[in-house]
Amino acid sequence: MALLHxxxxxxxxxxxxxxxxxxxxxxxxxRKVAVPKFRSAPPTVALLNLNPPPYDFDALEPHMxxxxxxxxxxxxxxxxxxxxxxxxxxxxxxxxxLEDIIKKTYNNGDxxxxxxxxxxxxxxxxxxxxxxxxxGKEPKGEILELIKRDFGAYDEFLKEFKQxxxxxxxxxxxxxxxxxxxxxxxxxxxxxxxxxxxxxxxxTIDVWEHAYYLDYQNRRPDYISTFMxxxxxxxxxxARLDRAKASAT
Length: 249
Fold this sequence. Notes:
four-stranded mixed sheet
């Protein structure tokens, strides 16, 4: 099965660094937060939430270290959320869901400045919920049936997903998505995600270097293999599949 690769070049913003998705995926909504009163009372603003991973920071060890997860979430993810909040403040985007912000600001391939931070905030919360302690191995349930239908066998899917993850040049993501009722593997550069094409993401792996360099240095293939063999939450993937199918009816 051929990989769906969209060679789109986006401007990379300066480094800016979404609880649980496991039982059912959620749309991320903006939360009204009152700014504390000091000398004057600024207006109430809408903020994105920075939700922690749905497990302790050391729960994925030894496959992903506490240092990596703490730094990745506490620095990178936090900065994406903070920057996005600053960019949407006092704009029409302040009342939108994060998914809608992404779709609106992608702007048909000419992204507005907020796009990268909004997409990366969404991508990271989705990524945390793709993992769980004691995860990985071959899935069960309907997702396995669809993998066999659309890829021929789980091993063939695994090979293609690893290839997509390893060959994404530079920073980006690899995805398993539901597109036109079929499973498809996609890879995206920088902050891009499948929401912009109307596809339904089921699984992702972050292949930005900051996702793995403290633990694996330049050995991206080792990180990818460990992710698939030890960390993937197939419970989350099956739940997302159920939601994606329900939303299509």
